[in-house]
Each structure stands twice: as C-alpha cells, then as structure tokens.
Write a structure and sequence with these properties.
It contains twelve helices and 13 strands. It has about 325 residues and is of the alpha/beta class. Helix 8 crosses helix 9 and helix 10 runs antiparallel to helix 11.
Length: about 325
C-alpha cells in the first residue's frame, strides 16, 4: 500500500459522528439554532450526548466523508487526520481503513480525546451540528507523511481545519509539498462561518496561486468575494482560481475552468431525509470524475449523484453502490 499512487489525499478533522433524530422543541430547549454548526468543549459534549436520543456512530469529518465517497467510487483515496489513543480513535481507524482508505497518521499519545460531532437531525432534514474537536486540532507538521502527499494526484483540504495554528501549518506544508511534486491542490471553504473567520487567509491562498481547485456553496462564495449576488461572485472567484466548483443545493451546481463553464441541475430525490455530508459527497463525486479524466459536466453529475444518494437517508456515508449508480445514470 505505501507504494501505490493515490488519486486523492484528503486532509481534515478526524471526527466520530454521532447522528440522532430530534425535533424543533428539543433544539429550542437546548438553545440551538437549527442548521447551524457550533464548537463545544468536552463538558458540553458530555452533557449534550446524555440528553440526545439514540444515535449512530461512524467515522466522519468533512474530508473523511469525502475520502469515503471516493473509495466507494473506486478511487484510490488516502486520509490524513489526528485521532487519539483511545476507543473512539480505534473505531475511527478501523472504520475508515475498512473502506480501503490509506490512513497512516500516528495516534496522539496525549490526554486529549478523539473528536466527535453530535449531529441532531430534525424532520425537515436539517442538521444541527455540535462539534468537540479534541485531538483533531492537534494535527502537526511532524505527523504529515510527505511521501504520501507526493504520491497523491490531488491533495484535498477542508476549511474547517484552518482554525487551529498547528493543523494550519500542516496544511500549508502539504500545499508546498504537493505543488513541488507537480500535483493539484483542492480546497473547500467548508462553511460560511469559516469564511467569516478566515476570509483574508483564504483569499491569500487563492491570490497567491496556491490552489488549483476551489469548492464552495452559494453562500460561501458570495461571502468570500463580497459580491452582491451569486453570478457576480462566481465571475469574481473564477478569475482567480483555475477551477471553481460551486454547489447550489436544489438548484444544482456549476463549474468554471477558464473560459469553460458547465452546469447541472440537482439529481431528483424521492425524499430528503438528512443533508449531513451532502457537500462532502458532492466533492467526492466530482474529484472521482476528475481523476478519471471526465469532462466538467460529467464530474458535476457524479457529484450530484453522490450527494443525492447521501441525503436520502440518515448519515454522511452512502448506503447504495455509488459506482453502480454512476454507471446507471452516466455510463
């Protein structure tokens, strides 16, 4: 395995997702804003976990979900993320490697527990996320396997991990190594709150020519550029990055590479059950298509197909055969 070429190496928070159904009354009682993501400490994680209903536990985190989707689509995927030397860390490693994902980051041998995200899903499929970052924010440059980075055709980074200083330094080093090796660097803005906190840093990455592919949703790209509307934001960002990919929820997605623009509608879904992981799986589908040398429109379709599958049930991992779905719908 160490000698194999990776299509995509994903770097992000290694988080165990705990997903449970709830209702608006519970959110109100807990003072939670529906559809939001907030960071919590260990005490609040313990308290809220005790108040939640029964949940499903699975290895997650944005980039981890993308790596899982890539593997399910047949891509050679790797993941870099920090877990602790504890039970949840063992669960995370076993779960992600069982999919064939290359995950060799050494465990953190300090008294910091593995990260977890408590995801509350209401009947309207909105997810409210409460994240304790724990060991995930202790990823360091020393934990980075630079040989692994060099073996990856695309290095995919999540904006959620940009906040702590140590992981940011590790991601910046990964960007340097990837570019020195002639590989592509992809970055996802992750969430509007990430853009609000790190707008200057994200724009510096873009304007410094350090990114080849930028993923965003409609709200994030508008916030990043400061433009008044979607089309103006896309036009502004597309001038500054070789490939821009923007999702628009039920309105589909668009990709712009120089003078080429492709757009697809959202894939039809019988019922939207849980939107957790929709953007992560869209990125997986798009990157899988890109690694196969497919045209932009096909890459968008693959992203839309993967996203549609994951929002049709609870959890951020596909339950259907993604490769079969793509073959059926796209060939």
């Amino acid at each position: 395995m160490p000698d194999r070429r990776l299509d995509v190496l994903c770097i992000g928070n290694a988080i165990v997702d705990v997903i449970a159904a709830t209702d608006d009354a519970f959110l109100a009682a807990e003072g939670l804003d529906k559809g939001s993501m907030r960071l919590i400490d260990a005490d609040e994680a313990t308290r809220l976990y005790g108040r939640m209903g029964p949940g499903r536990e699975i290895s997650g985190g944005s980039a981890g979900n993308t790596a899982a989707g890539l593997a399910m689509l047949g891509a050679a995927a790797g993941f870099v993320g920090q877990v602790a030397d504890d039970q949840l860390g063992e669960v995370y490693r076993h779960d992600i490697t069982s999919l064939g994902i290359e995950f060799t980051t050494p465990v953190l041998r300090e008294s910091v527990p593995t990260a977890r995200c408590l995801v509350l899903v209401t009947p309207d499929a909105q997810r409210t996320m409460n994240t304790f970052l724990g060991a995930a924010q202790h990823l360091t440059v020393d934990a980075l396997d630079e040989a692994q980075v060099r073996r990856a055709g695309i290095v995919y980074l999540e904006g959620y991990l940009w906040d702590p200083e140590a992981p940011r330094a590790a991601m910046e080093r990964a960007i340097d190594v990837a570019r020195e090796a002639g590989n592509k660097v992809a970055f996802t803005l992750s969430d509007s709150f990430c853009v609000d906190r790190h707008r200057d840093g994200f724009n510096a990455l873009i304007d410094g020519g350090r990114l080849d592919i930028l993923f965003a949703n409609e709200a994030e790209i508008v916030s990043l550029t400061g433009e008044a509307d979607f089309e103006a934001a896309v036009a502004s960002a597309a001038k500054r990055v070789p490939l821009l990919v923007v999702t628009r929820h039920e309105h589909g997605a668009v990709a712009v590479a120089g003078d080429e623009r492709a757009q697809v509608p959202a894939e039809p879904v019988a019922e939207v059950v849980d939107t957790t992981g929709a953007g992560d799986l869209f990125a997986a589908g798009f990157l899988a298509g890109l690694s196969q040398g497919r045209p932009l429109r096909d890459c968008l379709r693959m992203g839309a197909i993967a996203a549609a599958e994951v929002i049709s049930h609870y959890g951020a991992r596909p339950e259907a055969d993604l490769k079969a779905l793509v073959a059926e719908k796209l060939g």
